């Protein structure tokens, strides 16, 4: 019997050009082109850095890898072409500039005008690292938070409103949706990731059963509970740290519909970010056809969670760039599964002609580079420990239930 091969990945960039596609820039960038329609998406998930041999040749426009004499927004947003690193001192020792002209560019206001490149490559000059000594450390000032229903929706950087007006919420969502939620209206109940859930019982008859949905939900919450109790083995040694206020997931029919739309494409690659605003995503497939959907759920979820025991995170429990980009040691499926503030889940299993395909999406999305995966500490003992106005503590599960 032919052995079944199971694959799961965040995304592996293609190794050959398969379409007659050409998209070039304008003006000084008219000779700078993308040769594949997915270049912009791949660049957005860091493939310019992870797979430069292919990307910098075939996705020059999206990777900004063409040679021009212009200011930093014409350079690569992902790859520093200069062997240069200048870091701060003391509390800022991990805050670095990756280009010798960072200080000059910051002085001519490029941190505001071109944040997608500058806040990644010129962190020291832009003061964009999160330390106690850096002015742009996430602010707790009420002036950066909304009022009324939006009182809990805040900007962490004073320039958020300016950046939002210059369309950075769309062009630089990874930074903006994490740090500028108020200005980007990312807390809006209009978003699938944050609006009130249509619960498991109200999902449509679309090929998934109540039992199958319950399996996805129960397995996710069981693993989150194991982590919260400090019982999950970490490849770096010992167990992952306890979680102080891990939220219990709820099933969401609208998110399931989004996962279904992508699963039915039967194309093993992540869905475009604009199709799942503020939603994370995990993918799994097996070459075995028409696998029982509950069995497929069990296989996929276990494979995702096993990344902790196989590759490890460590006691710091922060999703660093180094951790994210380790070669052949994926961790992003696990981290999205247990991301503290992610509490909504929708999944779909599709029987494709060449595989059984599992797609789960998560809201609000996790996997923000540089952020803690969850807050470490003793799990909740009272509702107040959850520090959430609409949360109840489940001591038995060590999870905070969102109402």
UniProtKB/TrEMBL annotation:
Disulfide-bonded cysteines: 32-66, 95-129, 153-187
Keyword Signal attached: yes
PROSITE patterns: CRISP_1 (PS01009), CRISP_2 (PS01010), SHKT (PS51670)
Protein name: ShKT domain-containing protein
Signal peptide interval: 1-20
Pfam families in UniProt: CAP, ShK
Source organism superkingdom: Eukaryota
Originating species: Ancylostoma ceylanicum
Keywords assigned by UniProt, alphabetized: Disulfide bond, Signal
Gene: Acey_s0036.g3234
InterPro entries: Allrgn_V5/Tpx1_CS (IPR018244), CAP_dom (IPR014044), CAP_sf (IPR035940), CRISP-related (IPR001283), ShKT_dom (IPR003582), V5_allergen-like (IPR002413)
SUPFAM superfamilies: PR-1-like
A single Gene Ontology CC term: extracellular region
Domain ShKT: 32-66, 95-129, 153-187
